[in-house]
Amino acid sequence: MNLASKIPGTLVSFGTLVSFKLYFGPCPTPRFKYGQKVWRGCRGWVKIVGLTDGKIQWPIGRPNTEKPGRDSLVVYRGPNCSSRLFHTNRFRDTMWDHYLILRFRSASPVSSKGTSRTMTISHRISHRSLLCGFLLTAVLISNRDMMAQDVTLTDPRTSAMSSDVWRQEHRIIDVHQHIEDKPERLQRAVGILDRSGVGIGVILGAGTVTSKDGKPSSFQLPREHSEELYPGRFMHHMLLDYAGWDDADWSERAVKQIEEGYLLGAAGLKKYKRLGLFLKDGNGKLIRIDDQKLDPVWQRCGELNMPVSNHVGDPKAFWLPCDNTNERWTELKDHRSWRFGDPAKYPPRMELLDPLNRVIAQHSKTKFICVHFANNPEELEWVDAAPDRYPNMVADLAAHIPELGRHDLAKVRALFEKHQDRILFATDFMVYSKLFLGSGGDSENPTDDNAVEFFMKCWRWMETHPREWSHMTPIQGNWLISSIKLPPEVYRKINFDNAQRMFARSIPLPVVRAVRIDRDFVPDGQVNEDEWQAATPRRLEYQSNNNAARPELSTPVRLLWSERFLYLSYECPYGEISSWLPASKAERLGPRTRTIRLAGV
Which structural domains are found in the chain, ordered by start? Predict the structure, then answer.
């Protein structure tokens, strides 16, 4: 039985469904008509869904919700519905190799308007001839392989705002990591991220797409390895190859690099701080980020919706004298190359930030992630003003919570609340021959437990309110920080909603794990069976067109499997479904704007 086919799907409506069964199997008749009943003698409507290359194209059939208590249907749609999903008329009289039949039985009438309730729906699929996954990628595991979880069925809108639930469900996205391309490094990283509640890591700078002798590039190999070993756990940024910078056609070749990275699955482009500090042209002059030869690169990234992660400069202390009067002396002793205070070699710090700002302003359709809290965490007023000036700029938190934590906590909290849509959770977590937790020294060798504590201190700073406590990266400086206790709706955006929207093009599809059970039962729509408690849910919360979060419509999905059936349950915060009838008979491509309306409860 293979449930590995990836069929993206977002639940967009339920009527008053409380239970149903799904069957996969070979096509029993040569053709299907629109709305045809194929279960003769069975009560209710049947909906037929065509399967093409393992992907749902569009359901055939009509909603039937005119009368309370009558059989009804459910509608699904996937990401990028404007290009992937089509109106039913397109598939009239279409021959299908296989079919999916859904029979629905409503156990209660439609609730009256104004009634607030959460509908729970459960069903099971016979997997005698099961051919593909459904709605989400399903990964079958047994009970003994499942982590012990205390899963309680509650109002999904409440649990959708709980940070404990986020970590339990591994929903957090860390947009700034560096992990060496070795199986043991990936294994160690995933173990730490699992314990910490992080579901997806963005590996910055895996390599360039330049290929030699027809071999896979230094970007392609790490991406393929991580996807093979831990599918859906990592996204990768590509690097730019500056070889041949002085050639007249370098810009054209660089654009082709971006296009190749896009085709290979790069989530974005990483620009290291060497641009402006180390890289030089043929005349020995430092290459600046606002060099005109780079403009086509930034423009193409915008056209392809590839965010650019920009690292320019470093902490102010790295431009100060490198002695024991420097508050980051302990860190600089072990990293002498991080000191940029020699004016004969390096430009002043702000001469790195100003060119970046000019690039951001000039390429307004390109998304720029300014790492390390906009590359200037020491100056809150500067960071506070930047997002107002540049709508296409966001900031990540990588390695700079210790710096932010010693500012006035009221000012920091106010900044986070004001720019809650423009801040991304990030750590600069590194896994090489040893771990680096935001930074590190020669004598340090953190354990996995230290790494988990590092992440937990990040959560402590954002979601609690203690003052004056030791921060998570002591080598950066000997000072104390105070927590800012963000509201849940703000904290959630920073932890993963903003990243979901930023990387909507390349975010891995959600995976729900089906837990093995030893007995079969008939679903009644109540999800009261003990078996459901062992199943960790995945939530349907994002709009298909732009991945915008809708936590008020949070729909947890759980899966169980036995020798005969695959069981699915949904907790849906909907109490009413409205439709516009009669439905248009004309062919229509693209998203539906007036077919279905949901009333949230």
Answer: 10-156+509-600 (no CATH), 170-502 (3.20.20.140)
